[in-house]
Amino acid sequence: MQITELESDNKALVGEILKWKDRAKLNKAVRVFAGMADIHFGKVWKMLYDEVYYKHRIGVKQRGGKPYINNIRESEWPLVIQSMSALCKKEGISPSEIFKKAKLESDIA
After folding, report:
1. Residue 36 included in any domain
2. Is 9 within a domain?
3. Which helix or strand (DSSP H or E) is residue 71 part of?
4. CB of 40 closer than 8 Å to CB of 34
5. Containing domain of residue 36, as a range?
6. How many CB atoms lie within 10 A of CB 75?
7. Is residue 19 classed as helix, strand or coil in its secondary structure?
8. How many domains is the chain built from?
9. Which residues are CB-contacts of 34 (< 8 A; sequence separation ≥ 6)?
10. Which residues contact 92 (CB under 8 A, 6 or more apart)?
């Protein structure tokens, strides 16, 4: 069981979750993460945007108004997913656990 979860986490970290591109699903995952980490969801969004900017140089806030997630280009979704997974790891939460609790579809078996 732990090996499967570890493999899932590793795939998430490299952005191989192909079906997780829907913005509404990301919103749900952010809210689940916020609840598990006991952090206000608005702060989680800021953390995610900061991670995306500092790790991948994607300035979603500079591209337009709120909601900033609408400023993500299709080709950048793997990097956003990777950043969300990195936030999970920083808080000691398994990304695959977030996917399960948020009931997100993914290509992770």
Report:
1. yes
2. no
3. none
4. yes
5. 16-101
6. 7
7. coil
8. 1
9. 40, 41, 43, 44
10. none
Residue 3 lies in a domain: no
Q: How far apart are CA 50 and CA 109, in angstroms?
A: 30
Q: Give the C-alpha separation, 39 to 8, whole Å.
A: 24
Assess contact for 89 and 97: CB atoms under 8 A. Answer: no
Question: Is there a domain that residue 1 lies in?
Answer: no
Mean pLDDT: which of 1-5, 15-19, 21-25 is highest?
21-25
> How many residues belong to the chain?
109
| Predicted TM-score (pTM) of this structure | 0.74
Higher pLDDT, 21 or 98: 98
Average pLDDT over residues 8-37: 73
pLDDT class of 100 with cuts at 50, 70, 90:
confident
